[in-house]
């Protein structure tokens, strides 16, 4: 029925020029434990910035390390947050990391289309297909990042799959390593059980402390979070329209997360932002 | 089909291991579930006292503590056994949830660390190890760090005891600050040493009085030995050992895979590093210059008389003998299921590295410390059929490849495998 569009770019909308999600359908879950068969940089110095930010780094040889990626959106999904952040922090480089290849393709196309229709904008965002649970240190140096986002991660309800959760006590060591002092981890979920889990992991980790309420209120990112991501938007929709969810839950189609606890009563987002303290606050090594 | 081959018995092949007491008092060898210890000082066989009857499955890691008071063995039976070397009694038995792939002992001998095939490292506090009641105490490990679901291949403490270094199958070496009270977790990562392009198979430190911090040396499936500044994680030098030795021709079908480095052993002053490499009958000696921070090939030592490819090497800090073992358990080809052959090289010491002419000497069986009795003990028998050697070498190679190298499938093959997925069944 859409044959008449085929002569342009069939997967892109004719009016906006943006890629359309229906052509990038992907499974909601991906196994982070399986062996990866996509290229991974051997070390952070081998991340080719000219591929990701061609306007800022015209050729691979010109990369002098003067500017490096500051924000990482881990499990960026369809890239909604990246795109909102791009204009709020035009001077910061950011990257989305996503395991599902079709979704990564979509984000890539979306960014390219946005760059084409808004010259000079969206040059500071990019996306990479990777397994961030395994390869975070391959992309970032020690203390490189200022913000990391873990928004609506796969909840992995089964206890046997808890080790697949992207926030866990041991992986936080690696996140603390790539974050600089004072860097912030943003987590967000609509699954209460996962929220409690993430909060307890962060609370139990000696290298993180909670962000104060004042800091939270002053942070421009926090306001974005509930509106920018696709999952967050779904929740806004949910709060505006009083779905009396019966057995056919309307928002269970794309993200797996909403299905289980999203029975309409979860009005507030479980949200935690936590803080990476200066290392001198730690007990000194003997 | 290839899938069936993945599960063939070769995956249960475990290479033979050797470990030497720091003052050259004992030498231990592990073949399969068999742990054999020989007392070099008194030239006698050591009888192990363990009421639970020893290991039940292949031993994957053995090690003496730096002070020589402890010995640790662990492996596929998910048990870590901690022995007191004065009585050779098993004083602690630690149950692991998964198969154990590596062990380490803190320099002060207070903590034993072990890592499993799912990338978690545990610590056991053994401060109170002067228990004299003659019973094996059952302990439990506390998980303190993790390589995300990647097999941890080695654990090593830095010479100053500040760091615990762990290497994995995902090409990574992680340097973590070892806290004063490690049972609360080791969360502060000092650095990652990244540069290898295949699994990291072995680690050792080189250090001397002049350079007490030491430098880290690692060997890998990418056929290189690399020198690192572990404090910063920076790569100092790479030695492409695979390109610099004559190897036995492999069985033909896997020629694109470079021979992996299987073990490393440094002299006490760190000026020489012995390297065991798959398919290399003999050893490679590297000279490590700690002031210029370089590694270079000093010599390839060939072993006359037999095709001896060491699977594990070790040396004491007090004697200039490098011990080597070649062998494997779980073989299906030779007359017996396991094979172990022990050899020694003399002249593995500080003075040897200073003269350009390395006077390393492969010891004949009669010259080896401990003599025939030692060989009888560690090998299980004195003479070994020649054909067993090549079978063991091939089996060890295949087992290592199956365990540590990621499988590469063609696009076609991947599609085929996807179709066979359980969750996709009935949809096609």
From TrEMBL, chain A:
Cellular compartments annotated: Nucleus
Role noted for this protein: Catalyzes the formation of N(7)-methylguanine at position 46 (m7G46) in tRNA.
Entries under Pfam families matching the protein: Methyltransf_4
Protein known as: tRNA (guanine-N(7)-)-methyltransferase
Enzyme class label: transferase
Pathway in which this enzyme or protein is active: tRNA modification; N(7)-methylguanine-tRNA biosynthesis
Family statement drawn from the similarity comment of this UniProt entry: Belongs to the class I-like SAM-binding methyltransferase superfamily. TrmB family.
GO terms for MF: tRNA (guanine(46)-N7)-methyltransferase activity; tRNA binding
CC annotations in GO: nucleus; tRNA methyltransferase complex
EC number: 2.1.1.33
Alphabetical list of PROSITE patterns matching this protein: SAM_MT_TRMB
Catalytic activity, as annotated: guanosine(46) in tRNA + S-adenosyl-L-methionine = N(7)-methylguanosine(46) in tRNA + S-adenosyl-L-homocysteine
Active site feature: 154
Keywords (A to Z) from UniProt: Methyltransferase, Nucleus, RNA-binding, S-adenosyl-L-methionine, Transferase, tRNA processing, tRNA-binding
Biological source species: Olea europaea subsp. europaea
Residues the entry annotates as binding S-adenosyl-L-methionine: 75, 98-99, 131-132, 151, 229-231
Family annotation (InterPro entries): SAM-dependent_MTases_sf (IPR029063), Trm8_euk (IPR025763), tRNA_(Gua-N-7)_MeTrfase_Trmb (IPR003358)
Keyword tRNA processing: yes
Keyword tRNA-binding on entry: yes
NCBIfam families per record: tRNA (guanosine(46)-N7)-methyltransferase TrmB (TIGR00091)
UniProtKB/TrEMBL annotation, chain B:
Residue windows of the WD repeats: 52-93, 193-238
Coiled coil: none
The keyword Signal belongs to this UniProt entry's keyword annotation: no
GO cellular component: cytosol; nucleus; tRNA methyltransferase complex
Keywords: Nucleus, Repeat, tRNA processing, WD repeat
One Pfam short name: WD40
Entry's Gene Ontology BP terms: tRNA (guanine-N7)-methylation
Subcellular location: Nucleus
Pathway terms, separated by semicolons: tRNA modification; N(7)-methylguanine-tRNA biosynthesis
InterPro entries, per database record: Trm82, WD40/YVTN_repeat-like_dom_sf, WD40_repeat_dom_sf, WD40_rpt
PANTHER family associated with the record: TRNA (GUANINE-N(7)-)-METHYLTRANSFERASE NON-CATALYTIC SUBUNIT WDR4 (PTHR16288:SF0), WD40 REPEAT PROTEIN 4 (PTHR16288)
Family: Belongs to the WD repeat TRM82 family.
Complex and partners: Forms a heterodimer with the catalytic subunit.
Function: Required for the formation of N(7)-methylguanine at position 46 (m7G46) in tRNA. In the complex, it is required to stabilize and induce conformational changes of the catalytic subunit.
Protein name stated in the entry: tRNA (guanine-N(7)-)-methyltransferase non-catalytic subunit
Organism for this UniProt entry: Olea europaea subsp. europaea
């Amino acid at each position: 029925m859409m044959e008449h569009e085929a002569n342009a770019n069939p997967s892109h909308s004719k009016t906006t020029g943006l890629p359309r999600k229906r052509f990038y359908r992907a499974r909601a879950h991906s196994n982070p434990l399986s062996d990866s068969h996509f290229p991974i940089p051997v070390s952070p110095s081998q991340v080719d910035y000219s591929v990701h930010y061609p306007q800022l780094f015209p050729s691979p040889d010109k990369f002098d390390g003067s500017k490096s990626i500051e924000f990482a959106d881990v499990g960026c999904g369809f890239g909604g947050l990246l795109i909102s952040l791009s204009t709020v922090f035009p001077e910061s480089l950011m990257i989305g990391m996503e395991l599902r290849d079709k979704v990564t393709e979509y984000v890539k196309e979306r960014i390219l289309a946005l760059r084409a229709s808004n010259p000079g904008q969206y040059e500071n965002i990019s996306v990479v297909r990777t397994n961030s649970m395994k390869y975070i240190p391959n992309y970032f140096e020690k203390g490189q990042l200022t913000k990391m986002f873990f928004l609506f991660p796969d909840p992995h309800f089964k206890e046997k799959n808890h080790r697949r959760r992207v926030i866990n006590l041991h992986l936080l060591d690696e996140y603390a390593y790539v974050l600089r002092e004072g860097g912030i981890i943003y987590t967000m979920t609509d699954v209460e059980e996962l929220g409690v889990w993430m909060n307890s992991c962060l609370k139990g980790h000696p290298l993180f402390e909670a962000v104060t309420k004042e800091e939270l209120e002053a942070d421009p990112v926090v306001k974005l979070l509930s509106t920018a991501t696709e999952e967050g938007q779904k929740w806004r929709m949910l709060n505006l329209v009083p779905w009396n969810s019966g057995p056919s839950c309307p928002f269970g189609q794309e993200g797996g997360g909403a299905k289980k606890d999203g029975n309409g009563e979860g009005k507030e987002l479980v949200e935690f932002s936590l803080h990476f303290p200066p290392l001198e606050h730690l007990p000194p090594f003997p | 089909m290839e899938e069936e081959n993945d599960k063939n018995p070769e995956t249960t092949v475990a290479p033979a291991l050797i470990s030497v007491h720091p003052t050259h008092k004992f030498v231990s060898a592990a073949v399969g579930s068999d742990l054999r210890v020989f007392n070099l000082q008194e030239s006698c066989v050591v009888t192990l006292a363990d009421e639970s009857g020893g290991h039940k499955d292949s031993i994957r890691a053995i090690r003496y503590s730096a002070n020589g008071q402890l010995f640790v063995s662990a492996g596929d039976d998910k048990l870590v056994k901690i022995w007191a070397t004065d009585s050779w009694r098993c004083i602690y038995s630690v149950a692991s949830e998964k198969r154990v792939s590596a062990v380490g002992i803190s320099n002060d001998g207070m903590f034993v660390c072990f890592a499993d095939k799912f990338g978690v490292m545990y610590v056991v506090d053994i401060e109170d190890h002067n228990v004299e009641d003659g019973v094996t105490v059952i302990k439990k490990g506390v998980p303190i760090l993790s390589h995300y679901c990647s097999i941890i291949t080695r654990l090593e403490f830095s010479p100053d005891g500040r760091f615990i270094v762990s290497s994995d199958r995902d090409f990574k070496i992680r340097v973590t600050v070892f806290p004063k009270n490690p049972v609360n977790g080791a969360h502060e990562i000092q650095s990652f040493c990244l540069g290898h392009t295949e699994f990291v198979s072995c680690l050792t430190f080189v250090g001397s009085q002049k350079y007490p911090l030491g430098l880290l040396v690692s060997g890998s499936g990418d056929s290189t030995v690399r020198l690192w500044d572990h404090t910063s994680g920076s790569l100092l030098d790479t030695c492409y050992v695979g390109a610099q030795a004559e190897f036995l021709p492999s069985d033909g079908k896997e020629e694109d895979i470079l021979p992996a480095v299987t073990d490393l052993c440094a002299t006490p002053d760190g000026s020489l590093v012995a390297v065991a490499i798959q398919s290399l009958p003999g050893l490679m000696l590297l000279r490590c210059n700690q002031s210029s921070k370089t590694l270079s090939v000093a010599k390839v030592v060939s072993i006359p008389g037999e095709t001896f490819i060491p699977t594990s090497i070790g040396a004491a800090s007090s004697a200039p003998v490098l011990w080597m073992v070649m062998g494997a358990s779980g073989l299906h080809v030779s007359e017996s299921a396991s094979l172990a052959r022990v050899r020694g090289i003399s002249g593995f010491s500080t003075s040897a590295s200073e003269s350009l002419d390395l006077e390393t000497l492969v010891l004949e069986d009669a010259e080896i410390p401990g003599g025939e009795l030692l060989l009888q003990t560690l090998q299980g028998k004195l003479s070994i059929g020649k054909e067993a050697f090549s079978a063991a070498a091939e089996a060890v190679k295949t087992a290592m490849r199956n365990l540590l190298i990621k499988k590469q499938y063609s696009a076609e093959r991947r599609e085929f495998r996807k179709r066979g997925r359980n969750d996709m069944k009935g949809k096609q």
